[in-house]
Amino acid sequence: MADIYDIDGANQAWNLISRDLESLGTFEQKQKYITGHKYVKRAMDKLPGFKETINSHMIESIVDEFGNPDAPGFSFSKKHSDKFLLDKLNLIEKNAAVLEDYFGGEEGIEELKTRKLEGDLQWKEADERVTNLRQAIKQRRAEFDERSEAFGGPAGVFTVPAQAMKPVMQFFGGWTDWLQPTGLEQVENRKLDWDPLNKRYGPGPEIPALQKELKEAYTLRNTTLPKQYLENRTKVEEYKDLISSEESNAETINATGIDEALNYLDIESLKLMLQGG
After folding, report:
1. How many domains does the chain have?
2. On the chain, which terminus has fewer CB atoms closer than 10 Å, C or N?
C-alpha cells in the first residue's frame, strides 16, 4: 500500500506544480522555481516518485537547452559529444585519484609546496652569494688596477720588466679563461703588474681566496642544490601539469550542462546516460 500512496502522492504533487514549471522557458527559471518553492523540496524528500518526476523533467530541460536536438549523442553540449564529455569526467576522477595516491592529498601537496619554497630560498641565497663574490673580485681587481696604473698597469706610462711576459702569458694561457665562469679567470695580465702599496707583483692572495669561495658557491648553486631538489622539482612540474589539465577539464565541463545535470542525477547515472544507456 505504501507504493500506491507514494504514487498517488507523487502524482498529486506533480499536478500541483507541473503547469507552472512547464510554463517557464529556461532551465535557470525552473531551477529557481524549484529551489524557491515553499513545498517542492520537502515533497521531493518525502515522495521518491515525485522526486524522480522532477529529476526527469529537469534533465529533459537541460538536454533541450544545452544539447543539440539534431545531433544524437550531443545531450549536454552542442560543441562536445557525450563520449567526449564522458572521457573528461573519467579523466577528472583519475586525476583526483592521482592527487590523493601519488601526491598524498592536501597534506602531501602542502609538503611539496613547502619543500619547493625551501629549495627556491636556498637557491636564491646561493645565487646572491655568487653575485656578491663576483662583485668583490671585480672590485679588488679594479682597486689593484688603479694602484698599479702608473707602474705599468693597463694604462701605465712605462713598463716594468715582468710585463715583457704579458703577450706570452696571454697567448699560452689567456684562451683558457674563456671557459671559466665569470670571476674564476686564472691567467690574467695583471699578475705581472706592480702593486706599489703592497710591494709585489699581482693583486695578491685575496682574489684567489675569494675565487675559491666563488667556485664553491657556483657548485652549490649549479650542481648541489639542483640535484638535491631534483625529485621535488620534477614532482612540482608534474603537479603543475595535473592542475593545468584539471583547469582545462573543468572549463570544458562548466561550459556544458553537466554541472546542472548533477543536481538531478548521481555521477554513475550521468555516465550511463552519456554512454547511451
Report:
1. 1
2. N
